[in-house]
Amino acid sequence: MASGDFCLPGEGTEVLQQACNKQLPPCNLNEEDLLQNPYFGNLLLNLSQHVDESGLSLTLAKEQAQAWKEVRLHKTAWLRSEILQRVIQELLVDYYVKIQDTSLTSEDKKFHETLEQRLLVTELTRLLGPAQEKEMPSLLGLEKADLLELMPPSEDFLWMRPRLQREVEEQLKKKCFTLLCYHDPNSDSDSETLKAAKMWKLAEVLVSEKQQCRDTRRQQQERMVLLEKQSATYSQVLLRCLALLQRLLQEHRLKTQSELDRINAQYLEIKCSAMVLKLRMEELKILSDTYTAEKVEVHRLIRDRLEGAVHLQEEDMEKSRQVLNTYEVLGEEFDSLVKEYTQLRQATENKRWALQEFNKSYH
Predict the structure, then answer these.
(1) Rounded CA gap, 16 and 13, in Å?
(2) HEC secondary structure over 48-74
(3) Which string of DSSP letters, residue by residue, matches 182-202?
(4) Mapping DSSP to helix (H, G, I), strand (E, B) and coil, where does residue 34 land?
(5) CA dihedral angle for residue 178, residue 183, residue 186, residue 191, rounded to 10 degrees
(6) Each residue of 91-125: pLDDT tens digit?
(7) Across 305-324, average pLDDT
(8) Is the CB of residue 225 less than 8 Å from the CB of residue 26?
């Protein structure tokens, strides 16, 4: 680390990462964070010299380790007495079962009765609590001296103790063999000597497996921290990439929008022209289907005849006009000529109108 008040870029990053991963609780720090908060990196390095990975100070962590050691010792002692008591209770339960099925000898009865009486008196004495506590009244007004009077004779206890030791050892051996077979099912077919040898190493094997589980759990935690760091880094990179893509898309669209509009206008113009031509083609197709060559020829003959008739009518009208002019001075004869002229003119107008309508339908 460089001399000064804070880490220089890239100089103390690796040391700081090691401190954050080992001496300090897991935290996600990168070089960018150190650049934005330079004094914070120096604070973490100094803090890592006074705390452990759980966040406790070294003095408090040492006291905690000593306290846990004492707790484990007391727990071991309690477990030892608890196991012995449960084994003795199981012996008594087996005794009650055997009474129902088989007849026991007087020695067996004496052994179990002495054991049961001794166990009950001991448990009741424990319930009374320490003798020095006089603030609270004793249970049912009993004292320890009252319970000790119920203890079996000392010679019975001395006679019972060797057999109790043998049976407890036998019961514990069965439980140990059961535990061994549960841990290693292949050991079920081994001899007692081999099972006993494996039992001596079972504690070491269990401790080793437990340590492997702890190491695996620690590795898993480290991988989870690494995964969280990678996820955070990848998320930031993806967000920056998305922002860059959005900016590029916006700039590219603004530059090409006018060209795109011009192309769209040309496309619409060409499409409109194509629609007009298509409509004209449909119109011509309808006309072609409506007026065949034969129909056109017939319409041409009709038109020629109508034009000839119109021409004759016009000549007749002209002659009538000349006659009218000649006989204009006549009286009643002139009126008859006028009526005839009017009729001829009306007929001519009708034929001219028919010819015009025919020409419109033909074109």
Answers:
(1) 5
(2) HCCECCCCCEHHHHHHHHHHHHHHHHH
(3) HH-GGGGGS-HHHHHHHHHHH
(4) helix
(5) -40
(6) 888 787 877 767 777 877 788 888 888 888 777 77
(7) 84
(8) yes
